[in-house]
Amino acid sequence: MRITPTAGAGRVLLPCVLVAILLTLFMPCAPRATAAPDSTGREVTFTGGAGLTLHGTVISPAATNSDTPGIVLVGGSGPGPREEYRREAEAFAAAGITVLIYDKRTDGYSRTHRDFGLLADDALGAVRYLRDQPGVRRDMVGLWGFSEGGWVAPLAASRSDDIAFLITLGASGYDPLRTQTWYLANRLRHRGDRSALIDALAGPAARLLAGTGLFAAADFDPLPVLHRVHVPILGLWGDHDVQEPPVESAAIFQRSLTADPSVTLRFLTAASHNGRSTVTGFDRVGPTYDRPIPPGDFAPGYLDTMTDWLHRVAAGTPPESSAAPAPAQPTASRDPGRDPWTSPGIQAAVIILLLVAFLAYLPISRTGKRIRGTRPLALFGLTSVLGTIAYLLWIYATGGNSPGPIVLARPLPWLVLQLLAVGTVVALALTLYNTVRSRAALTAIHRRGLALLIPAGFVWLAWAPTWGLLFR
Which fold has domain 39-175+220-323? Predict the structure, then answer.
């Protein structure tokens, strides 16, 4: 039977259709949330390391559950407001796990000073607080540590019997300085740099920076800590992690975590350092949220891998130890080296010597008969030394975000420094040639000046290749 709509029905249906279309077109689209909103949160305070009061949020499953596992989230580097990890916290709560997220301390934590031991005490204070909450199993509270938290959370777990399990995401098996130089190298390569700047950053610059104490916790060694961890652990790395070497780090974890029979190491497919979906490691796939919530969708399997593993541990049946096959890691990390020539003390002494020698000769170059090449040697040498140190420190300070435009497969400031280095070599050759030609006519002050300048030029000639100024 064919049903023909009446005119009255049309008059009713048409406005409804129009309203539905308008709502579809103009209704604001909320970002897709991976975590289900079936959780409740309440503000709390607890005592961290050195008696500091810290502020956090306990997020619990909305359903009335008793004896739930508990987990404390330990964030990465930087100011670390708790909201940065709310999406992970809500995902754990949606899976029936009570979570504590908290604001990182600002007292005793800065760009140049980081005490991982103090941060570990903060995490332990959070664990003690969560263990005392109604409905939380006291024997089943553990830690989740991301990035910098991948150093802090294992340290906390190695210090206390209160930790029941440990999950790490993007944890490095190396010290912070080596990890950071690998990240800076990746950023520069991503921008198109193919010069010796990368080697300088990872070699002499890294050692000099460590020697000055300006790089926080530069030499923190995670290996002794990993040897002391005796709880089930799940280690996760994004296969597109560009901030720490994932394959090398997983191998270090596999070698070091031998005391407990349940060590599970996994790589997340198409995942970045923080577990978000990515194509290159530098981009994020998915919606952008209000800061400080990181942009992008969670990588496939990220949340399920953690919650499934945790429920097995809570049930008393942790999985047997296993390590997933490692993906390809495009570049290897680099040890800054141990040779005496690039040690911080010798490099600092050489740099001071060069600066003093070149500066001291400049006023001499203005007196009497000038010798061609000497003033350019002092000027170019002085500028190349100061510029190189200042530029490399700038790259470290900015995290490689502002190296300058890329010209001839290198940042423009580095190209200028390399051209200055070539000019210094030419000026040294001219100085030697003209000094030999004019030695009979040299005044006493010029003889003393050249006795300072020429040896400094040869020292510079040994120093410059070490810092990559005369190669690539």
Answer: Rossmann fold (3.40.50)
